[in-house]
Design a protein that fits this description.
9 helices; Beta-Lactamase; alpha+beta; Arc Repressor Mutant, subunit A; single chain; seven-stranded antiparallel beta sheet; three-stranded antiparallel beta sheet
């Protein structure tokens, strides 16, 4: 299934590594099927999203209900995420030294330059916002809900992440993205991704404009003990991307360096 979120490629465990637990992997795939805009799902919808059989999904959702990870809604014969999921999300955020260091500096830069500032990490073939501050004309900030997903292939955040992958991992992800974007002008999209990756390697950041009159610039950041985080700044403007780059690339790179220095200092 093209829209399956289950990774069906089997990786043989190396020496000293335990064999992956398939039941656990499938249970996690069921939980991943839930997201903003599709917070209530039936077994059929979960099966379609995960690529699992309906009988397998039925067994998994029953177990997840019994453990509290899902709640069953009799009236709609569907499920929603349970309270323990929220508890785990808060635990994840609370344990992140990167978020603790980055958040106040992101707010400061957003207000100073009257721009949007976001922080995201990769999850499968999408990027997930950890934090995002949106500057508006009333000189105040609004926060995009943490956990919001955006496309990896189309965005500066996603392309900056792709630039950090090993050649083997990059090729594997490009195959996934090609399949997902089949019929959507993949040839041109691939060219844009490769140009963005080259830009990150050359300048430390890349530029993208995938929404009308919105230009974003993103830079990857590495931290010991954490996945690669990607920082971006964006602005709604009729200006060409090159003009925005000339103005905002320096503040982005300065902020990225400051966040990395603070995390290293407080580690």
């Amino acid at each position: 299934m093209a829209n399956s979120i289950v990774n069906t490629e089997r990786i043989k465990p190396g020496k000293g590594k335990a064999t992956p637990n398939r039941s656990l992997e499938r249970g996690i795939a069921v939980l991943r099927a839930f997201r903003a805009g599709s917070s209530v799902l039936g077994n059929g919808e979960i099966a379609e999203r995960t690529g699992l059989s309906r009988s397998t999904v039925s067994r998994l959702t029953q177990s997840l209900v019994e453990t509290g990870m899902l709640e069953y809604i009799p009236a709609s014969r569907a499920y929603r995420l349970g309270v323990p999921v929220l508890c785990m999300a808060h635990a994840m955020r609370d344990s992140s030294q990167v978020l603790k260091a980055a958040t106040p500096m992101m707010v400061e830069v957003a207000m100073q330059h009257r721009i949007n500032v976001g922080l995201a990490v990769a999850e499968a073939d999408e990027m997930v916002y950890l934090e995002s501050f949106r500057y508006n004309r009333r000189q105040s900030l609004r926060t995009v809900v943490s956990g919001q997903r955006i496309p990896m292939a189309l965005t500066s955040l996603g392309r900056a992440h792709l630039a950090t992958l090993s050649p083997e991992a990059f090729s594997a992800m490009m195959r996934i993205l090609a399949d997902k974007n089949r019929g959507r002008g993949w040839g041109e999209l691939r060219r844009q991704i490769e140009a963005a990756v080259a830009s990150v390697h050359d300048k430390g950041y890349c530029v993208a404009s995938w929404q009308p009159q919105v230009v974003a610039i993103a830079a990857p950041m590495r931290f010991d003990g954490y996945a690669v985080h990607v920082l971006n700044v964006s602005i709604a403007t009729p200006q060409e991307p090159a003009a925005v780059e000339a103005t905002l690339a320096a503040p982005l790179m300065k902020l990225a360096a400051a966040i990395q220095a603070r995390v290293a200092r407080e580690a």
